Please model this.
Amino acid sequence: MPRNPPTDIWQFLAAASPDHLELGHWRYVLGSLFAALLIGSIVIAFQNWARDPEQRTGCHLGTWLVRTLIGCMWFEGMLWKLPLPVSAGLQIWTEQMASRAAFDAHRDLVRDVLLPHLAQLGPLVFLAELTFAVSMMLGLGVRLVGVLAMLFVTNLWLGIYQPGDPAEWPWSYVFLMMLMFLFSLYAAGRSLGLDAVLRREVASVRERRGLFGRLLNIVS
Model:
């Protein structure tokens, strides 16, 4: 089958992309999880649109669409961190960082600390990218998660900064860093996301009552 956007999208939705197929029967679990997140994103957006007239703008709709698509990107990127604890892709690219990082201290950290403990690092990287995907798709805790994702991408940008794979373009990481920064700065989860629901319908969050309410108000 020739590759093009429609076929790629269909294969991903059907859990039949090359990354999915390498996971065996687990691809059905991950395909179901992605479908649940996508449907959840749409349902949450619809409920916000129906219940809050202030949400019914092109700006909120556009922000929701871009945020959800970036969440899909994080989910797709997460797939090649499998199988746990260390996928072949994670092993290769972490080794690349040991020789291509922009600064000596970064290269030393990767070589002397991260690579020897990659079996413990792999699940953490997987969980981090899953968290980014869930947050962006559902619009939950986007202000906090946007900052964490920006730092995560900064590590990748500086980690493979030196010339190597000609397909790598450092500006790709810079663009993603800037997008995560803007999501955090403008609280993109408040655009048809769960953050909007929390701040509108949960009194403790809306009024910053109690430690938990104040924390949720900050991260959303």
